[in-house]
Amino acid sequence: MADPKGFLTTDREVARTRPVAERVRDWNEVYVPGSLLPVISKQAGRCMDCGIPFCHNGCPLGNLIPEWNDYAYREDWRAASERLHATNNFPEFTGRLCPAPCESACVLGINQPAVTIKNVEVTIIDKAWEAGDVTPQPPERLSGKTVAVIGSGPAGLAAAQQLTRAGHTVAVYERADRIGGLLRYGIPEFKMEKRHINRRIEQMRAEGTKFRTEVEIGRDIDAAKLRKRYDAVVIAAGATTSRDLPVPGRELKGIHFAMEYLPMANKVQEGDLTVAPITAEGKHVVVIGGGDTGADCVGTAHRQGAASVTQLEIMPRPGEERNANQPWPTFPMLYKVTSAHEETTVLARLRAEANPVEGPSSPKAGEEGRVYSVSTTHFEGDEDGNVQWLHLIEVEFKGGKLEQKPGTERRIPAQLVTLAMGFTGTDRANGLVDQFGLELDERGNIARDADYATNVPGVFVAGDAGRGQSLIVWAIAEGRSAARGVDRFLTGASTLPAPIRPTDRALSV
Question: Which of 27, 80, 434, 480 qualifies as a cystine partner to 68, CB 3.0-4.6 A?
């Protein structure tokens, strides 16, 4: 145990963020560089090294959290990195992007603020990179077997790295122009700077993994021909079909899926574009969808100079404490203020101070720009077909059904609308599913057995393409588990870890 009294003597302290007025002028990560290091050892010392560490169950990767907390407390960063990498290929991704179900399952969290597990994790891996402790791990011998991985998101990269280290020759196919999938183009730079992806890719190249960009399986290469070329195939193409909003006015210009809007902003940061073709500059922006993708749209709009940003959510506002029906150690639905929502509050206040005579279309000072329990009825445009207004109505759940509340209709200004309502399944339009002849489950995901194998011999599926829309930790866990299934298929046995089964789900009630 790190510090037997740490949880009694040390209060929870998280990473400090840069001032809003400063950070919305750039695209760097929102946190103050180096702000965690002076406090993180004491924070790791709050870990109680529980007899039954429920944080292991909260995390599908089965991260050895008490062990690397102990090493971090003692500032043995190399040992901490070794324990961290024992279960997680990419802790710098999860340490920045994961919503930390491990913290929800922390035993200390029953009656105190949980250990800052996520902050400890990202500090360990950043220190490891800084010290040169993250090095390529090429296989000692090659198996002579070849594997194609379709998709370079967290599931695909995890599967590829595991299989490469097992001695197989692996090629990763990515339809975009750069490796990373949604990590590259779906996650804004202010949440994770892309240098973190780049150096992992270089490590994987040094280990022997091959990468093929701008190749879409199903369109550029027939899926059946790919299967004949390789001994095994792993489909990690994600669940990229966005949920649409079929209401009157949807055809107006200025209404886009989040995954049409966010990649353009990231391409500007990559240097591919000078100005994003879809921009919020000077516009009243409405984001439909209250999840993390919606928050990413909010933060992106702020940095592009939006006149105002409003985020709509059809569900009621969550509480700030656990509900009785979401007991510890489940992952609760709680009200949270992300960095993007904090920015909305501060920017609204600054606008109000600069213009005391507040116009009817401006957000009120101090508001976070979020509106709960509302549903969009239709859009209204100008004579040129550009969206100008969004009409909404308040809703409530009665008897398990969603009902509109008469007399609550209103409209809000909307010159740019992003749809961030989640995803419905893997892409069917490119022909990948049909060309392979894959079976789907009742939810439209690619069906697989206990070894992540599809109905087509030698073809496996990992990540959101098989599980449905999920978290980054589940994607990495699936990639690692699918790699074991592939390794067994190719060699008859495997020593690779498989942290989860395809049927496993998050701790819930």
Answer: 80
